[in-house]
Amino acid sequence: MLPAPASRHRQRLTGRPWTIAGLAGAGLVLLALSSLLGTVPVPLAAGLRILVHQLSGGALFPSTCAGTGVSVPDCSTLTFIVWQLYLPEVLLALVVGAALGLSGGALQGIFRNPLADPFLLGISSGGTLGAAILYVYRIEVAQADLYLPLFAFVGSVATGLLILAVARGRSSSVETLLLTGVAIANLLSALLSLVLLYNPVGGEQVSFWLLGNLGLASWSVDGLAFGVVLALGALLALFGQDLNLLQLGADVAQSAGVEAGRVRLKVILLASTITAIAVAFTGVIGFVGLVSPHVVRRLVGSDYRVVLPGSALVGAALLLSARDVSYLAFPSSVFPIGIFTAFFGVPFFLFLLYRQRRLTPMGTR
Amino acid sequence: MTAARSPPPLVVRRTTVRYGDRVGVQDLDLAVGAGEFVALTGPNGSGKTTVLRAVLGFLSPTQGSVEVFGRPVEALSIRERARTIAWVPQEESLRDDVPLEEYVLYGRYPFHSFLDRETPAERAGVRALLRELALEDRARDGVLSLSGGERQRAVLARALAQETPLLLLDEPTSHLDIGHQLDLLSRVRARTRATGVAVVAALHDLNLAARFADRIVVLSHGRRVADGTPSAVLSVELLARVWGVGADLERDRRTGLPYLVPHQISVAPASSEPPASLGPVHVVGGGGAAAPILRRLVDAGYLVTAGALHLLDSDTEIAQALGVPTALESPFAPLGEEVRSRHRALLSRAKVITVAPFAVGPSNLANLEDVGPFVARTPTYLLRSPPIRERDFAEGRAEVAYGELLRAGAHEVDDLAGLMRELARALPNSVPPAPAATRETP
Questions:
Q1: Between the CA of residue A211 and those of A128, A204, A335, A340, A343, what are the distances in Å?
Q2: A241 CB near a chain B CB, below 8 Å?
Q3: Measured between alpha carbons, how far is B237 from A71 in angstroms, rounded to an integer?
Q4: Which residues are CB-neighbours of A161 under 8 A, at least 6 positions away?
């Protein structure tokens, strides 16, 4: 009835709810199975019973592991492992993945640049420097769980604000902001190298942290990260239509009623804060923020009202998958998860890129 | 409608916009009424886009004010502006392949708060717009799959979705073929008639401007140099003066509207301050009497102006072919006040005035009379043969006027050769180098 290009678009549009439902369903299964994966193997049946038992507040499977061949003391150990270690790690992976995906999507929209990622504005450099100062000068190492995120967060936010302040003083153009960010990030990297050069102690920890890990996960960390990311992320996701219009150029957007300058500032502040939270708890996990928005765009189109929440979902799924793959590949060791986001994400991204290369990718026009 | 009483859609008062040291627009006055279609035209860099950007509030005037419906544009919030003024840019950078319908819905942005979304009524409105612009079949297609003509209509649809009483278009047809140019502008024209929306369109195609606009405003170097109906504004002289282009002025037999057929770059476009040695030499003529003089002067490298001539006159044809700026009147009509004032402007700029031995009748007697006041300060040469008595068809009044010129100090010369000798004496260094291609600087 309709010409070919039209039906293609119709398909992409009507497929949208199914895509979201599919992603959500796959996510739930992934979530349950992931909670049983880690450095210590957990038998599937016992693990699932433990999960249900804990989630129901003890109402279901009151005798937890009965009938699975796991002894009572082992069962309580496994319960601790699953409930206090694995599940918090899984949830942190979800929150951080969502934070990075969302932040990446928002920044790609603001900068109209497909290469933008959450660490674009020096957030990671600032966070790393903050963490390095903690490690190198051994400040309150006994309470590293508390101080590491704090130092990293302060470092990230301070860097972000510094860049915004410098760029705002000169000109409000996106390019200026971008270049200021790159320049400051390089300056901070140099500073970091200098600090590590004179203080080799702690360097290994810093480089491990640089690649990202979920080791700080706990219910309280998760609760904090979840609260902040959900609140700020929900706010950020409401800027979808503003980002849609900004794709037409700041002038056109403004002629249609978008307060381009203010929207830009708000989105950058929100995205940077969300990223800073992620960096604070897990270090610098690359690739998730860059690739998630592209995956969403290729699956469901470029409407930012969908791209933003979609990127959060894909980011969460991607980081969780990377965690799982790392444990499946190296069952008894903890690898920096950033390595696996790349190993796992790059092939998938390239597959999407070349399978649909006939479609116009963002930024080629 | 209360349109008659409400303040006009757009009033620009003595507005100057600068880009650093450079002047974008200087002392501009412009008023646009409801339902009016005003074409803003002028050469590249004349300030058309600057005017539009100042109206949109993108540029702040250094002097003067821009008022939209009686309120200074900078006093309106960005959202209020978007509900008042819509803008069709020259080219919109469509990067993402969003469905056309969603794209047009972007125009509803200023009507929504942070949380709510489009209503079914708005979607229906967008559908109606797409129907009106012959895009309904493409509603679900991605904007990147649209053709150039469709895409520009889509941009127009997005702007119209803002339902503003003022619509600005910046060279909306510059990337379109002639068919789509006509199509787009007639849709805008129909819209102004149907809804009373006021339109300001920057158009560099004068003929399109003449065809669709109620009024044409001509800008040159940031100043308004003409403002009026197409018939009043369009002239060969204007095209030569502002664009430095020679043209024939014709009249469309069906619409009765004037249109210009540009045919060459002027050998020496008129300039308000040409090098003194080059002239300008002004030739008063008509009926073919001026033609040999014009040819000879242009060949010799003088800057030449002519007037006041009638359309379809053989002198006019030669003047146009040579790119000589001319004050022009409709065929056989007595010289009107506007043409005479343009003629006097040319006379006042002339370094030497030459009066060709033309046949003087009631319709062009004013030509001789208008020379009078300039004789005292400008060397004036009258070609004496054939004698004025033989070419006086104005019941003796031509002879009287001729006599007055002589009494005022005009010189008679015998023939063209004599004229050239006098010119060489009156304008020393008058063997000019290559013709200068200076544009006017008002």
A1: 10, 11, 9, 10, 13
A2: yes
A3: 104
A4: none
In the chain, the amino acid numbered A317 is A
Q: Pick from A122, A92, A37: which is nearest to A212 by CA?
A: A92
- Interchain contact A256–B (C-beta under 8 A): yes
Residue B148: HSE in the Cβ half-sphere, 13 Å Cα cutoff: 12
Cβ–Cβ under 8 Å, residues A114 and A363: yes
**Cα separation, A93 vs A52, whole angstroms:** 21
Residue B5, judged by CB atoms within 10 A of its CB (0-12, 13-18, 19+), counts as exposed
Q: Residue B217: exposed, middle, or buried by beta-carbon count in 10 A (0-12, 13-18, 19+)?
A: buried
Of B95, B99, B115, the CB nearest to A9: B99
| Contact (CB<8Å) B141/A245 | no
Enter the ipTM. 0.80
A116: pLDDT confidence band, cut at 50, 70 and 90? Answer: confident
Which of B49, B92, B96 to probe by mutation at the A interface, max A CB count within 10 Å? B96
- Tens digit of pLDDT for each residue in A193-206? 888 888 777 777 77
Q: Given the structure tokens 């009033």, which residue do they identify?
A: B11
Q: Which two tokens stand for residue A227?
A: 């609260």
> Given a cut of 60, is residue A8 above it in pLDDT?
no
CB B200, CB B10: distance < 8 Å = yes
DSSP state, residue B214 = S
Model confidence pLDDT, tens digit, residues B15-67 = 999 888 888 899 999 999 999 999 999 988 889 999 999 999 999 999 999 99
Classify residue B293 as exposed, middle or buried by CB count within 10 Å of its CB (0-12, 13-18, 19+). buried
Q: Are A204 and A126 in contact (CB under 8 A)?
A: no
Strand B223-228 and strand B215-220: the pairing is: antiparallel
Q: Do A112 and B95 touch (CB under 8 A)?
A: yes
3-class secondary structure, B402 = helix
> Using CB atoms, which residue from B78, B114, B138 is nearest to A238?
B114
Question: Which of A94-108, A178-192, B241-255: highest mean pLDDT?
Answer: A94-108
Higher confidence at residue A128 or residue A234? A234
| Interstrand relation of B10-19 and B22-32 (parallel, antiparallel or unpaired) | antiparallel
Q: Are B357 and B384 in contact (CB under 8 A)?
A: yes
pLDDT digits over A328-358, tens only? 888 877 778 888 887 777 787 788 777 755 4
Q: Which residues, including other chains, have CB under 8 Å from residue B79's CB and lie 6 or more apart?
A: A257, A259, B110
* Closest residue on chain A to B158 (Cα): A256
Contact B99 A13 (CB under 8 A): yes
Give percent of chain A above pLDDT 70: 89
* Angle at the Cα of B110 from the Cα atoms of B108 and B112, rounded to 5 degrees: 80
**CA–CA–CA angle B316, B320, B324 (5° rounding):** 100
Average pLDDT in the A209-229 region? 88
For the segment A284-302, the average pLDDT, to the nearest whole number, is 88
Cα gap A245→A330, rounded to integer Å = 46
Instruction: Please provide residue B273's backbone torsions phi and psi, each rounded to the nearest 5 degrees.
Output: -130, 75
Length of chain A: 365
Amino acid symbol at B248: D
Helix axes A304-329, A16-34, angle to 10 degrees: 30
Low-confidence ranges of chain B (pLDDT < 50): 1-4, 266-276, 430-442
Give yes or no for a contact between B309 and B326, defined as CB atoms under 8 angstroms apart.
yes
pLDDT of residue B21: 82
Least Cα distance to B123 among B150, B103, B96, B147 occurs for B103
Query: In this predicted structure, what is the pLDDT of residue B392?
Result: 86
